[in-house]
Amino acid sequence: MSTLTFKPITLQDRDILTPYFEKTNWRDCNSSFASLYLWSEQYPASYTIVNDMAVVCYPHPTIYSYYLPIGDGSGGRQREVLEVMLRHAKSQGTPLRLHLTSEVLDSVRDTLPHLENIQWKRELADYIYPSDKLRTLSGKKLHSKKNHLNRFLAENEWRFEEITTSNKTECLSMLEIWQKENRYGDERDIGLENESQTVRRSLERLEDLRLSGGLIRLLSGERSGQVIAFSVGEPITGDTFVTHFEKAFGQINGAYTIINQKMAEHFAKDLAYINREDDAGDEGLRKAKLSYQPEFLLEKGALQVTELL
Q1: β-bridge mates for residue 87, sequence order
Q2: In whole angstroms, how far apart are CA 272 and each of 86, 268, 269?
Q3: Are 24 and 31 a contacting pair, CB within 8 Å?
Q4: CA separation (Å) from 102 to 82, 160, 275?
């Protein structure tokens, strides 16, 4: 087989692809069906099945980009699928461009040459935190976060709720307000709209995608009864929960801190890690993510492959 036929990813493919992701045990925030589907309007992804592994690619006019084969690659299966992918790329007149992360390097050292040439991109690196630290905010390095939390608790009456069909419309309404309040007034608003559109999809398809969501509702003050923060994520491996989206009204001191802490407490209490995704190269977001003291960064990059070892 020298050519492959790819199918665009749709919601109906969830039950087909999810079992393959479950076999990889990757902590990469993109290693879930929900992530691929939610961003498919901005980054169209297609897939095919080869030798009982899923091959996901991003079409491009000059070169296709691929994930490492997804699924159980034991017994030489990963190499066999990579050989098929490489033949397919050559038939298209392009090198095989693979998306790789620092957590998969050991599994490909005997297969892929020139790993030293991987083009790592700092803005794509995922921030991985010990879940117990985000739950308790213990230790000197998180003292300021604990102070933010304590101030929120002292100044407000509030309630944490799981997001359901009965309250998701309130999160959608809050998102509209949040987006208006965070506009830049320049070309960056295109990225803001793209992200907000994806967050909307996550709320609208929450049940279909088996996502977990939580919100903070104030029960006191001028905003009593209103949703002032929400977050959406999912378990991505047996030990890691990924926070796909988190929104809060920044003018409410501690709003981001409380939703972060309650999501960790509610959905990741039995898991070792929480992946809070990348910073997209935004300096403010990078500073905020670093302030929570990640245990490590999951690096991401790309490698162009013309042959296998």
Answers
A1: none
A2: 36, 8, 8
A3: yes
A4: 18, 35, 14
DSSP state of 187: T
* Cα separation, 294 vs 305, whole angstroms: 32
19: amino acid identity, one letter = P
| Phi, psi dihedrals of residue 55, rounded to the nearest 5° | -115, 115
- How high is the mean pLDDT of the chain? 95
Q: Is the pLDDT of residue 266 over 90?
A: yes
Contact assessment for residue 184 and residue 196, using Cβ atoms and an 8 Å cutoff: no
Token pair recorded at residue 195: 């992200």
Q: What is the pLDDT of residues 228-238, one digit of tens each?
A: 999 999 999 99
Do the Cβ atoms of 174 and 161 come closer than 8 Å?
no
257 in helix, strand or coil? Answer: helix
Q: What is the separation of C-alpha 67 from the centre of its chain, rounded to a whole number of angstroms? A: 15
State the CB neighbour count (10 A cutoff) for residue 280.
11
Rg from Cα positions in the chain: 21
Please state whether beta strands 300-305 and 119-120 pair in parallel, antiparallel, or not at all (unpaired).
Answer: antiparallel
Distance, CA of 46 to CA of 58 (rounded, Å): 6
